[in-house]
């Protein structure tokens, strides 16, 4: 038994109406059963993991042949790495969360079975486990932030539990009737009255302080709303089975729960081979990649900040403060931020109004507008002459002149040399400088087809499909990512996952990135969880890279900036015929790693079975994923090793100092 944790292997585990006074991780090793947590029931099968939080009311029913592993963690240790220990309740871990926890859990089990004397290593693994669980609890709370009526009641009671509370006052504060409040408590909690629920919250908050602090129990009781100390002691003992002083005095023994009438299985080499060998084999990564970190490594090239080009149909409706928030929140690390403004020259009066409006708004924020004359061709110029275009440039000239700018940026999608020459010549009548961008047609065109007009073009906007054919023109390439938008559920297509890999693989090729802002605005201004936006998460990963690239291949980009290293890693394969294995990155260095942090995007299949026409053509299509769903997590680096699950993108940042 250890004062900070315990690991027990149990057969036929059955408990009734217990409350946790610590943090528990229950791993279902064999058989089936159910776990009820605060009135919510979870069906458990082999490989499932449940996290129980402080003060959870739970009961466990298991089959006769069921085997479970129970890990009890010290609340004092857990609370160091988790801030969400009051509002969060226990729950069943998702598949992605299991991938994060299981390798650490297997290391702990292996140490307990084979090398119990190595206490320091085991404690280190326990620390890593607490870090992972704390991170997941925070994300779980963030994902379940949509307020229900019970959430509102709970949050109000948490905030006011130190005061004297009356049922009518609570109902009035929450705009509810007494009966509505009673129904919420009766049907959505394990309690029969509001007083029982309030006392439970007060006891939970008091327990936290009893375990964390050294103040007297009496002071803690009064602080949390108990005016009668003797009643507090009775309620506390009824709830937890011990008095507050007993829990504080013997806390080291309480971190390991004792279960009566249950068979305890020894943690030995024999039980390991019987129950965990195949799990260890499953979680062992067969693909290893060594990353050698040396001060003598020569840089391949230097990373230059990328220009950013954004398009938006909604930008016209945002005020200056909203635009400033967007650009600072998302793009603060980019070299320059440009806003592409499309114009329809057939409605010239509208063009003039938009032009003046945009110039005033963007100049105030220091953003550079690019005026996109979409569909401007020789036929239009021959029919309308250059009157409209000429008038537009006059408007631009006076607007830009007021703001002391002597140049203008224009974007065309015409490859006709005559059109380009006419536009450039017209611009030069009003401005000293003309920056011309060309949107390359979405067809199989080669760079040599633009030799005649290349002298006029500052940069080319190309798509992912055109990346490989434009390698020699990388210094003039802007990567257009506007087709990467996901649906409203945050799901993306298989092709877009491939495009993510391409975007990073050819990171050096392009001087800038273009994408639509409209999809991101719903996350910023409509209360949607930003963690669901995998494009933004991936963009932020790439945008952090700085310094020199010291290694690059098909799976990783490794950068170095002074003492800081960053690694962007890919473990992607869309082929359904081949099972992709996990990838383990081994960082080889003699120096200690510090300030290590990481983020991970893991994709799982999200089949869209509504396409009945596809199903009738090919039965195999029923099992092919139309979409992939990404989830963002923050795993830890253990012993200089980082596990990249199949279908994932990871970003690792750390420092090395001698």
From TrEMBL:
Source species, domain of life: Bacteria
Gene Ontology molecular function terms on file: DNA-binding transcription factor activity; sequence-specific DNA binding
Alphabetically ordered keywords of this record: DNA-binding, Transcription, Transcription regulation
InterPro entries: Homeodomain-like_sf (IPR009057), HTH_AraC (IPR018060), HTH_AraC-typ_CS (IPR018062)
UniProt-listed Pfam families: HTH_18 (PF12833)
Occurrences of domain HTH araC/xylS-type (ranges): 151-250
Name of the protein this chain belongs to: AraC family transcriptional regulator
Organism encoding this protein: Staphylococcus lugdunensis
